[in-house]
Each structure stands twice: as structure tokens, then as C-alpha cells.
Write a structure and sequence with these properties.
two-stranded antiparallel ribbon
Length: 225
């Protein structure tokens, strides 16, 4: 294949990928915008609460769709991240460690050991998106893991009041304890270390955009609910 032909082919592929990226960015924004309106009004809220697990799966599916370079290390990250995230929640619900005393409502769907399976997916989404932001900006794995974990803890500060209002989960005495945020930081850091240390391709063109919409969704609902 000649150089001009190869360059033309690469340009065409780049245009297709850019168009696809723009399309999925629009889909993400529309879903989150509709979700804000649906959750904001008491009349429609119960229906949108039922859709929450499917929305999480959609987010995860879009992230995986834009992933490049699948290998065994990435599959290990998904498995380890899910087990640690989900396992910490099972431990938390049944013992109060490491987050505090809380329990899950029905809004997040099917539960195993009194914890919705979607919570494990939620951990993966947040770890993957925050880790991706720093993947090529910070060389030190431990520093990058710590900063990404801090970012996740800050996001949880935004999520918590809304999650309680929407019956995702409830806290004993209706008080979100400091232990929750410390626990989040610790568990997030542990999973982030695996994200950094496992050898897989870290690029994902849409992860930052999805994370931005997720944060904006909960930030706006904090002002409304």
C-alpha cells in the first residue's frame, strides 16, 4: 500500500472514530439530562429510579465499547476491581466496616448478599474513569493512585446526599459518617493501584466525558432535591 493511500485510509478511519465519539457523547448527555428531569419530579421519579441499574450498565457498556487493546491484564483488572469494590460493600453492609452502618434500597436492582450487583459495576466505572484521567499525566503509580482515590472520594461527597434521597442506600440515624469517606478513599486507592500496576492500554476517548456528565448529574440534583 502506497504512502498516500495509507494516509488517506488513516484519515478516513479518524473521521469515522470522531463522528462515533461525537454521537456517543450526545447520547450520554441526553440520557443524563433526561435523568435529571426525571429524578427531579416526584411524579416521574419512581420510574427513573427503576431505570438506574440499566443506566449504569449503559455507561459501562459505552466505556467498554470505546476501549482499545483488550488483553488478559484488563480482564484481570475488571475482575479484581469488581471483587474488591463489591466485597467491600458486602463487608460494610454486614459489619459496618469500612464505611459505617448502612443498607441498600431497591432502586439499584438485583441484590446478592444484600448488596446490588450494580454497585460493583459502579466501582469499576469510577475507578476506570478517574484512573484514565491521570494515566498519562503522572508517572508515579502510587501518587497517581492516591490522587485518583482522592478524586473518587470528592465525587462520593457529591453523590451521597442524592443517593440517600433517591433510596439508593440509607445510613443509620440518617447521618453520613466520616468513616464512609475514609473507607471510600482506602478501597478506591487499593483498586487504583491494580489499575496502574496491571499492564493494559489505558486510553479511552470517552471516559472523561462520561465522568463529567456523571458529576454534573449529581451536582445538579444536589441543588434540586
Amino acid at each position: 500500500m502506497s504512502q498516500p493511500t495509507l494516509a488517506k485510509k488513516n484519515t478516513g478511519l479518524s473521521a469515522i472514530l470522531n463522528n462515533k465519539l461525537s454521537l456517543f457523547q450526545a447520547i450520554i448527555s441526553i440520557f443524563y439530562l433526561v435523568g435529571v428531569f426525571g429524578m427531579a419530579f416526584p411524579l416521574t421519579r419512581p420510574y427513573f429510579q427503576l431505570l438506574t441499574p440499566f443506566h449504569l450498565l449503559l455507561n459501562f457498556g459505552i466505556l467498554l465499547y470505546f476501549r482499545r487493546g483488550w488483553n488478559m491484564a484488563f480482564m484481570m483488572f475488571l475482575l479484581i476491581g469488581f471483587i474488591i469494590g463489591y466485597g467491600s460493600e458486602v463487608l460494610g453492609v454486614h459489619t459496618g466496616f469500612p464505611f459505617g452502618n448502612y443498607w441498600y434500597g431497591e432502586a439499584l436492582g438485583f441484590q446478592l448478599f444484600e448488596v446490588p450487583l450494580m454497585i460493583g459495576v459502579n466501582w469499576l466505572i469510577l475507578v476506570y474513569c478517574t484512573g484514565n484521567l491521570l494515566a498519562h499525566k503522572i508517572d508515579n503509580d502510587w501518587l497517581a493512585s492516591a490522587l485518583a482515590a482522592l478524586m473518587m472520594m470528592a465525587i462520593d461527597v457529591i453523590i451521597e446526599p442524592v443517593a440517600v434521597q433517591l433510596d439508593f442506600w440509607s445510613w443509620q440515624g440518617d447521618v453520613i459518617p466520616l468513616s464512609n469517606f475514609i473507607g471510600w478513599l482506602a478501597v478506591a486507592f487499593l483498586i487504583q493501584v491494580f489499575y496502574r500496576k496491571l499492564n493494559f492500554h489505558k486510553e479511552n476517548a470517552i471516559s472523561w466525558y462520561l465522568l463529567f456528565n456523571l458529576i454534573a448529574f449529581f451536582a445538579v440534583l444536589n441543588l434540586i432535591l
